[in-house]
Design brief:
The protein is mainly α. It has one domain. The protein is about 75% helix and about 0% strand. Helix 1 packs antiparallel against helix 9, helix 3 runs parallel beside helix 8 and helix 6 packs antiparallel against helix 11. The two termini are about 20 Å apart.
Length: about 290
């Protein structure tokens, strides 16, 4: 949860600097994925990879990258509050995979905790600042992000329930290789399209401007640090998804991240706490305690 918090802080700083433009989100995801890939190669190497790990790793990388992409697109064309609620609720659905598919136990306290976590997530999103009605485009994009969100956790859990669950490094190297390639393709396509649009819209008398990076070396360093933290976060999450019951692990990771992110907003980014934020923190903390009982 702490590593997840640090990733969110770095990403929030980066997003504010780049105005959440898609091309620089592709840049962020491609570089962080590449850095994460390098960390995995240095932190244990590839090791032995069986077919199950191969296909699940590649699938995980594509789903993870596409889910993040559609989440960012949904935020860009619709309500940040509602997008956050919908995608966060989707990420909690894998908590049910343990009791349903793997015979894991389920207590009354854990059910109550999961319900409280849902309420805390809804409260944490705050008020919607956009008064316009949701567009069909946003509804389609956010629906895709919602469907893909639980798939990330389900693939993690599926791999860790196989006899090849020890192939964590191989799984993650394959995942972040596919994510890096996908995001680099999107970045360079967007870069080419942006420069081509400028060429077509610029008159012969005007100097030609090209798409340039809106930040310096400091923010590149932040992206590299974020990539290293993402690597640690994914390796820990993948391992723990096979060691901790789903009804505990997924609400704990997602709900704990929500609680820490809310606190970071108040402490680091000087956001003024309101009743909704306080209630979200209290309910989220209570939920974390209950799901562990």
């Amino acid at each position: 949860m702490t590593v997840n918090l640090l990733c969110s802080v770095f990403r929030k700083i980066y997003t504010g600097k780049t105005d959440n433009k898609p091309i620089w989100q592709y840049f962020f995801l491609s570089i962080t994925s590449f850095v994460s890939l390098a960390v995995f190669l240095l932190w244990g190497g590839v090791g032995e990879i069986h077919n199950v790990t191969l296909w699940l790793g590649l699938l995980y990388g594509v789903i993870m990258a596409v889910q993040l992409l559609f989440y960012m697109l949904a935020v860009g064309c619709g309500s940040f509050a509602f997008t956050t609620i919908i995608v966060s609720l989707g990420s909690l659905l894998p908590a049910l995979s343990g009791p349903i598919f793997y015979g894991e136990g389920l207590s009354v306290f854990q059910i109550i905790g999961a319900v409280l976590m849902v309420i805390a997530l809804i409260l944490s999103a705050g008020k919607d600042t956009k008064s316009t009605r949701p567009s069909v485009k946003w509804l389609i994009i956010v629906a895709i992000a919602f469907i893909l969100a639980p798939c990330v956790g389900l693939v993690q859990k599926a791999h860790q329930e196989t006899e090849w669950k020890s192939e964590i490094n191989g799984f993650l190297i394959l995942a972040f290789s596919s994510a890096t390639v996908l995001m680099l393709i999107l970045f360079f396509v967007s870069l080419f399209a942006g420069n081509r649009k400028l060429r077509l819209s610029t008159s012969p008398e005007q100097p030609l401007r090209r798409v340039k990076m809106p930040f310096g070396i400091v923010f590149v360093i932040l992206v590299v640090i974020a990539g290293a933290l993402i690597a640690v976060n994914n390796k820990l999450n993948l391992y723990l998804s096979g060691q901790v019951d789903s009804i505990i692990f997924f609400p704990l990771v997602n709900g704990g991240a929500m609680v820490l992110n809310t606190l970071s907003g108040i402490i680091i980014f000087k956001e003024k706490p309101n009743l909704r934020m306080i209630m979200s923190l209290l309910l989220g903390t209570a939920a974390l305690v209950l799901v562990c009982l």
